[in-house]
Specification:
This protein is an alpha+beta fold. The chain contains nine helices and 21 strands. It has a domain of 245 residues: Beta Barrel (Thrombin, subunit H), CATH 2.40.10.10.
Length: 433
């Protein structure tokens, strides 16, 4: 963990030096100046920096200035070659290498064995200045799978010789290959095996996302008529509980998506932000139940919950399904239909081999028991691994499986949404993913 934290600390420092500021809508909480930044801090930064989506267009000439608000953030934002967040000619320093095809190792962190480009890596280097370390993924720069027909095996990106059914740069898996090296955001096991789920059919119809009033989204799942399960780190910011938000179901339902407001929350009594953010000891407490103002499950149904501590050996070895609203699939629900538990840990966590990425936090890991779908865990974070790149961690549902009924009835919970004072036990902060 110390190596990762050191690198990410440098990444955050480089980002701040590059010109990120409060006026850009970036608030870096957690005391980076007095403590060592880690992967959780980098994740917080990723959640808080939001840019307009890429819009294909003609590349500008390789000249201009840095007048765009996103200039000097290390990522090219020119239209046609970058994210499209800036107008042509206003993000010169970040874009001139990408636009001219000149990739080099001019970054101070180049040739350290880790990609430091934004999105793919730590973000410590400007794009195209860490060529040797990022070579395996540089061709995927600005590519996503946000097309509604992504993962269908047919290239439909007009820029890649496809039939044009998808917008440019939104059909990555079909137009390149599914081979995926590990990156700081994308936790794939050498290959992206995800598929798009039909949100008009159960149980995918009851897996939605919470859009929080203070910004950011996380995946969540209906586990009763009016209770959804997600990750604890999703409902906090700067040491304060920020669970206020709106839950939205899958858009494929007849009549469109259903929505409901979050009105209460329940968290693990052992949760402690400082301990959780500084190590792995409290990973098993990274869960949260949110109560809604409408019983959506009465109309749509809901999945069940299985306590793995009481499960049979057969159930523990069963096939897993996982689905979440990943950063690279837009409003489409993507997930895994054939992955497995790798190991159980005494801290109420488990490791898995499901392909997950940023945005999947809070997403459900489910098993089938006949016609029943059962949540056994929610997506949490990743740990360093002496025998490989990372260990991918989910918080098992054992700690909250028996609390759903009482929480729905209002017998337990916080009695409504209110902010917790900074520093108190139970104060939260988004971390780890």
């Amino acid at each position: 963990m110390m190596v990762i934290r050191a690198i990410l600390g440098a990444a955050l420092g480089a980002f701040l030096i590059a010109g990120a500021s409060a006026q850009d809508g970036i608030v870096l909480s957690g005391g980076f100046e007095t403590g060592a930044p880690d992967s959780r801090d980098y994740a917080r930064l990723l959640q808080q920096v939001t840019k307009p989506g890429a819009r294909p267009g003609p590349a500008s000439q390789i000249r201009g200035d840095d007048s765009c608000r996103w200039a000097n953030d290390g990522e090219c934002d020119e239209p046609g070659v970058g994210t499209g967040a800036c107008t042509s000619g206003t993000d010169y320093s970040d874009c001139w290498r990408v636009m001219s095809g000149v990739e080099d190792d001019s970054c101070q962190w180049a040739n350290d064995g880790e990609c430091d480009e934004p999105r793919f890596g730590t973000g410590a280097c400007t794009q195209a200045t860490d060529a040797t370390d990022c070579g395996a993924v540089s061709h995927l720069r600005f590519q996503s799978d946000q097309c509604d027909t992504a993962f269908n095996g047919v290239c439909e990106d007009p820029e890649r010789g496809g039939n044009g059914a998808c917008e440019a740069r939104t059909d990555r898996a079909d137009c390149f290959t599914r081979d995926r090296p590990l990156t700081i955001n994308d936790h794939f096991f050498g290959r992206d095996d995800r598929v798009l789920m039909d949100t008009g059919t159960f149980p995918w119809s009851v897996i939605g996302y919470v859009t929080f009033d203070e910004g950011g989204t996380c995946t969540a799942t209906l586990v009763s008529d009016s209770v959804i399960a997600t990750a604890a780190h999703c409902i906090s910011e700067g040491g304060r509980i920020q669970a206020d938000g709106e839950f939205t179901t899958g858009e494929g339902l007849p009549g469109g998506a259903r929505t409901a407001r979050v009105v209460d929350f329940l968290m693990d009594p052992q949760w402690n932000e400082e301990v959780f953010s500084s190590g792995d000891d409290l990973d098993g407490t990274d869960w949260a139940l949110l109560r809604l103002d409408r019983p959506l499950g009465a109309e749509l149904g809901h999945v069940g919950v299985l306590d793995l501590d009481r499960a049979s050996r057969r159930q523990r070895q069963a096939r897993l399904w996982q689905a979440g609203y990943s950063w690279d699939t837009g409003t489409n629900l993507s997930g895994n239909t054939d992955c497995y538990i790798l190991d159980f840990y005494r801290d109420n966590t488990m490791s898995h081999d499901c392909d997950t990425t940023r945005g999947d936090s809070g997403s459900p890991f489910m098993m089938r028991d006949g016609d029943d779908w059962l949540v056994i865990a929610t997506d949490s974070n990743f740990r360093s691994n002496p025998n490989g790149p990372m260990i991918y961690i989910a918080a098992r549902s054992s700690r909250w499986a028996g609390l759903v009924e009482d929480f729905e009835a209002g017998l337990i919970g916080n009695g409504g949404l209110r902010l917790a004072g900074t520093g108190k036990p139970g104060a939260l902060d988004p971390i780890k993913k």
